[in-house]
Design goal:
The protein is mainly alpha-helical. Helix content is 47%, strand content 7%. Helix 10 packs across helix 11.
Length: 528
């Protein structure tokens, strides 16, 4: 009897040990939208808790890219090693480590504004003035602007400082090529708050806020697919060229800033009205109101960034830094959805790295060079598997049988013939310009038009010309297409899923007076 009990105890102990071993070989990790890396031993199984329901649509590059067969995309070990060593070389900095340590160890403070004594500000500005070609001397107006900036939203300024860690290496590289002071990089913060898709009320676009015609003068093209004013690299090079040409005219960087904002003509008028002065602070009252506050805003931004530690700014590190990315010149048409599916890079990251592609499509056009910027790990795999990726993209487009928007290049100038029912507001909206601009270009004193009249227009957006085939099919088919709203959808995000469809189209086709959507509701995505 005792022997039987002893055997039973041994069996129970063994089962308990096995259960415990099984338990230790299973590890539950919290699922995340972003790519995650978990360290595991060969006998450990990792399970994801509450995985993203869309996870299956965000395949890593080693997953299936064809429905019929699985293709494991491998990178070349030698090339991968070069990328790894080069990244290590770039990031191996004692200064970087000490900066990170100081950020980790200091307490986060919500306020940055403390009483800034005028004497302290004067001393700091004198130090800046000694090492920059700008006139950063103390001025009561500048002091007022700096104090107002310090009272603003701290988190917003820290967000700009985090973004600057991505954009400033790119800016400095181009500015140095044209012998332009590196402090000019702060100009992009004043111009666009480092938003490559920023557009002003008058149509200036991109990080450096180029107007359509000025952008054209410096080689920035606009088409139905691409707006190169939103391309960080090309627009920065164009800005450097433009700034260098302004300096050749004025020979003073403060006046270069003023003329970049208001145009060389307004600055030359201010010089005349001041009696010939070249001092910005003397010219300030003769400049347009917006420009009068422009240089102080630049200098205040320069001060805040250079003395960020003294005011307890603690920006986070960006998701990606510029030197950790690389470009690939595309050889066939690709969509961001396709690139995301085969590389595992999130679509939102692709949009951040490639903001000039307006429809999330990278076109392929003869004699044009369009490139795709990716994080370096994805770049190596893409280059090593280009043919498979392009074949997958072509197959997917053919299977979906989608009619992509026609590539239309925006003309520098067009002659528009007025038709019955036209009015200035309608024409202005069609070409993305202002009514006042059309009147100025055509020396018009009133809004009256006559049928057959010709207007000269400098369009800011292309007008896609539908093919006769698509026109015929649109005429034959009067049945609208519908889309079922999902959780998190907005009119803007839905419009981006269907090339050629705008938010205004969706509102018009669905008789909507509001932008509110509810999951499950069906909305028209085509006219009918």
């Amino acid at each position: 009897m005792l022997r039987r009990k002893y055997i039973m105890l041994l069996l129970l102990a063994g089962m308990s040990t096995l259960a415990q071993e099984k338990k230790t070989k299973e590890r539950v990790e919290k699922a995340n939208f972003r790519v995650q890396i978990f360290q595991k031993s060969d006998d450990t199984e990792i399970k994801l808790a509450q995985p993203d329901p869309e996870y299956r649509d965000k395949l890593p590059i080693s997953a299936a890219i064809r429905d019929s067969s699985k293709v494991k995309l491998k990178d070349l070990p030698q090339a991968k090693k070069v990328d790894s060593l080069w990244k290590l070389e770039l990031t191996n900095s004692d200064l970087y480590e000490s900066m990170q340590k100081s950020i980790r160890e200091q307490d986060y403070e919500k306020e940055v504004y403390k009483e800034l004594p005028t004497d302290t500000l004067k001393a700091r500005l004198a130090k800046l003035n000694a090492r920059t070609p700008f006139n950063v001397e103390y001025n009561p107006i500048l002091e007022s602007v700096i104090n107002s900036y310090l009272k603003r939203n701290k988190q917003g300024m820290e967000r700009l400082m985090a973004l600057s860690k991505y954009y400033f290496p790119l800016f400095e590289q181009e500015l140095d090529r044209y012998d332009i002071p590196l402090e000019i990089k702060y100009l992009a913060i004043v111009e666009s708050a480092l938003n490559p898709k920023a557009k002003s009320r008058v149509g200036a676009t991109g990080l450096w806020q180029f107007m359509f015609t000025t952008g054209k003068m410096h080689g920035l093209d606009v088409s139905s697919y691409v707006d190169e004013r939103m391309d960080p690299e090309r627009s920065t090079e164009a800005a450097a060229q433009y700034l260098a040409s302004l300096y050749r005219v004025f020979g003073d960087w403060d006046l270069v800033l003023a003329s970049y904002n208001s145009g060389p003509g307004n600055v030359s008028k201010a010089i005349r009205r001041s009696g010939g002065s070249n001092d910005y602070w003397q010219l300030r009252r003769y400049l347009p109101r917006e420009t009068a506050g422009y240089v102080p805003a630049f200098l205040a931004t320069l001060y805040l960034f250079e003395y960020a530690d003294e005011h307890n700014f603690q920006p986070k590190n960006p998701d990606v830094v510029y030197f950790e990315t690389d470009t690939i010149q595309v050889k066939r048409l690709l969509t961001f959805d396709q690139v995301s599916k085969v590389t595992g890079v999130e679509k939102e990251m692709l949009q951040f790295l490639n903001p000039s592609y307006k429809l999330d499509i990278i076109p392929f056009v003869e004699d044009e060079k369009y490139s795709l910027r990716l994080p370096k790990p994805a770049t190596g795999k893409f280059v090593s598997n280009e043919n498979a990726i392009y074949e997958f993209a072509e197959t997917q487009i053919a299977e979906k049988k989608e009619e992509l928007p026609q590539y239309v290049k925006t003309e520098d100038r067009i002659r528009y013939k007025v038709r019955s029912g036209d009015y200035l507001g309608k024409i202005a909206e069609k070409y993305g310009v202002g009514v006042s601009s059309i009147k100025r270009w055509n020396n018009m004193r009133s809004n009256n038009l006559r049928v057959g009249q010709y207007l000269t227009i400098y369009p800011r957006k292309p007008v896609a010309v539908a093919s006769s085939k698509s026109k015929t099919s649109a005429t034959k088919s009067s049945n609208p297409r519908f889309y079922t709203v999902k959780q998190g959808d907005s009119l803007w995000s839905i419009s981006k899923k269907f090339p050629g469809v705008t938010v205004q189209n969706l509102k018009s086709w669905n008789d909507m007076n509001t932008s509110r959507l509810k999951p499950g509701m069906k909305i028209k995505i085509s006219k009918g």
